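Much of what follows relies on a compact textual record of a protein's fold. An example makes this concrete, so a full record is given next.
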Amino acid sequence: MTASLEEYLKVIYILLKIKGIARVTDIAEELGVKKPSVNRALKILKEEGFIYYEAYKDIELTDKGIICAKDIVRKQDTLKVFLVEVLSVDDKKAETEAKLMKHAISEDTVNKLESYIQSIIDVDKFVCNYNPSNKKCKECIKSSFRKRGIKN
């Protein structure tokens, strides 16, 4: 799958999670593209079995699409957490760079990054469902770093 199609799939997944609905207009607005571009991407995603879509109807993810979208989001979130919390990269810059990096990183490397992050943060001790995008989780991570004497 191309980097562009991954972005479309990710946006569909996020729109469905946040709004409960994903439409061509919403996707175009989110990605800053024209509706015909969205329709071309949706056609490919449908042909490859990632979405259910009929013209002028709402878009749904197939099981395959959900699995792939979750993986895309996980990669980007893991990279962003690493950039922000370990390397002290500015949040906005980390978001942009993680978005670009996720397309070039292997599953093995993401797993190793996650393991490394967990080894220095000890996420198992958190009594919440750790979410690297959540503001409260970011504060817990920063607190954990300070307690361990790690600069963040």
